[in-house]
Amino acid sequence: MAALVALTDIRGKPTFAFVLVLPMMIPQHVTAIAWLQATGPGSPALQLLGIAPPIGTPNPLYSEAGILVLLTIQHAPLTFLLLLAALRQLPGEIVEAARVAGARPGRILLRVLLPASAPALVAAYALAVVSTLGNFGIPALLGIPARYITLPVLIWRRLASFGPGMLPDVAVLSALLGGLAIAAVAVQLMLQARMAARISSRWQRPIAFRLSGFRPFAEALLALYAAATTVVPVSALLATSLVPTYGVRLTARSVTLSNYAELLFSQPATLRAFANSTLLATIAALTLAALALLLAALLAGRPGRGQKATLTNIVALADVAYALPGIVIAIAYILAFLRPLPLFHLRLYDTLGIIYFAYLT
What we know:
Elements: H1 2-7, H2 13-20, H3 22-25, H4 28-39, H5 44-49, H6 64-88, H7 92-100, H8 105-116, H9 118-133, H10 137-143, H11 151-161, H12 166-195, H13 215-241, H14 258-266, H15 268-300, H16 305-323, H17 326-337, H18 352-360
Helix pairs in contact: 4-10, 4-13, 6-9, 6-10, 7-8, 9-12, 11-12, 12-17, 15-18
């Protein structure tokens, strides 16, 4: 998909780039719930089309294959964005040189563009690994009914047990999961150092392979994928929210807004939770943007050798922090701030502050 958007003459590239990253913006739990409602016997959308499976039919998503499919859909936008940026930076001159040497488009892709983008491919793979390692929502909602347990789900189960050995068990499992994530980043850095391809050019002509008669087919494929991964689950959620209860057929008579009225006006916890999430996400995003601008300004300048090494280590630590799954960071913050901070006697545990700092990490 990244190659089609970055390297060919398909139309509507900005639109495709936007819709292909939409699945990443849907939270993990919501992704799992949306697909369960889109494919289950009680799906209002399938009932409306007359293709809903019979009541009592087991949902195929409750399986290892179902988890793999949804993890792929959830994290594909991350790798797409990374590869899209890398492919757009490749200069058109290397393609022209290959054409002069007699190479056809397929050979150019395999022998020139693929090796040149190898570091980005490795980074995309590592990003996919660390992102799926820490994914809790999809394996929890799909894996527990199928008795397919992943490390984040096992950590949550131990945490919910409240036994005497709960914290040591959780700490060991979190260290194991964090070690796996850090190992993935270490392998990524090692492979990238070996595969580094330094291509420079004073001016870069963008690469644009002409697809000719294949262009409508390529555009239709991208549109079909975008519809399948975004429109289908979102429409299933919307349809389910507009009927009195799950399993009711969506018709002009059954459409109701009572679910929205109940949640928004009769349950104050909904608006409070919305306000907390919005506040924390906004402040964390602004803080991170300021820190990123500062780091970028320092790295873009002319720091000394020691300063540059320090800045590079800070960036590497940020990568490692992202590699740590969210549930591992949560456990670490609980263990670190369960008691008030020494000297300051400041209590972070059981406050919004601890969530804010965990979001920054």
